[in-house]
Specification:
Layout: H1 3-18, H2 22-26, H3 31-52, H4 58-72, H5 82-92, H6 97-107, E1 113-114, H7 118-140, H8 147-165, H9 167-172, E2 175-176, H10 180-186, H11 190-195, H12 200-220, H13 232-251, H14 265-278
Parallel strand pairs: 1-2
Length: about 280
């Protein structure tokens, strides 16, 4: 077995065990697209882990960044993700800048986080989520650059959903992603988030932020018609899973403190089945 194929097998194992939402949509792709998505996911999963693990350091991220630059040129360290990553980037013509943005966004999470304005939060969402969407549509295939800003907005919608779901655990890590201008507007403090205070002020804030996320889902919806037809069920399933997660947050009246809001494997499997039926290929 070649080095590249061994690397793809490793990346697919990572995706199967770690990609709680993404992997379901991968199943709807062709074999070579699925392998490519697993390679990109394994790279991004490792990036994310670098900022979340105990003892995470800027030096570790800098080493990963240097290894990535080498891998983009075909020079691999012993990390098993690199051959598949390099092969995928070349095969699908993915711009290298997306991966540099991702690492910069992850590196910014090493320190306690806060954002004064939504514009600042949007920039962060672009770095850690929109670049994922932009990378993904290169694997899906698209024929017009109109797809690029829509993929960017779709990534923002996904990341805002994640932020709403993870408010308590992020606050415990010293990370408050909701803009300070919004907290002041609704009369919510960082302490309220850390202590799980579901006051009326908090509920008003969450309704506002959920509506903002929903608007980005709506704005990005035309993307589905702009990617190659064979890939549309996969994107449809991915959007359905994340938008359903946002609906679940809304339906539990924003109780993101007592339990982690999630979809069951059965629910996600049903979405995949619906994608096969609803979206022609």
């Amino acid at each position: 077995m070649s080095e590249v194929e061994q690397s793809y097998q490793y990346c697919c194992r990572v995706a199967r065990t770690r990609a709680k939402n993404f992997y379901y949509s991968f199943l709807l792709l062709s074999a070579h697209q699925r392998k490519a998505m697993c390679a990109i996911y394994a790279f991004m999963r490792y990036c994310d882990d670098l900022s979340d693990e105990a003892g995470a350091s800027r030096a570790a991220i800098d080493r990963w960044r240097a290894e990535m630059e080498d891998a983009l040129e075909g020079r691999f360290s012993g990390q098993p993700v690199w051959p598949a990553f390099h092969h995928t980037v070349r095969r699908f013509g993915i711009p290298h800048e997306y991966f540099r943005e991702m690492i910069s966004g992850v590196a910014s999470d090493l320190e306690p986080r806060s954002f004064e304005t939504f514009d600042q939060l949007y920039r962060y969402c672009y770095q850690v989520a929109s670049v994922v969407g932009l990378t993904t549509i290169h694997i899906f295939g698209f024929d017009t650059r109109i797809a690029l800003p829509l993929a960017e907005k779709c990534g923002v919608a996904f990341q805002l959903t994640n932020i709403l779901r993870d408010i308590r655990e992020d606050a415990d890590r010293g990370r408050v992603y909701l803009p300070a201008e919004d907290l002041r507007r609704f009369g919510v403090t960082g302490r309220d988030l850390r202590e799980g205070n579901r006051s009326e002020a908090f509920l008003r804030l969450m309704r506002f932020e959920a509506a903002r996320a929903r608007a980005y889902y709506d704005e990005s919806r035309p993307l589905l018609d702009l990617i190659h037809q064979r890939s549309r069920p996969s994107l449809w399933a991915l959007i359905a899973i994340y938008s359903r997660l946002l609906e679940r947050i809304e339906r539990c009246n924003y109780d993101v403190f007592t339990r982690r809001v999630r979809l069951s494997p059965l629910e996600k499997s049903w979405i995949v089945v619906r994608a096969l039926v609803a979206i022609p290929r």
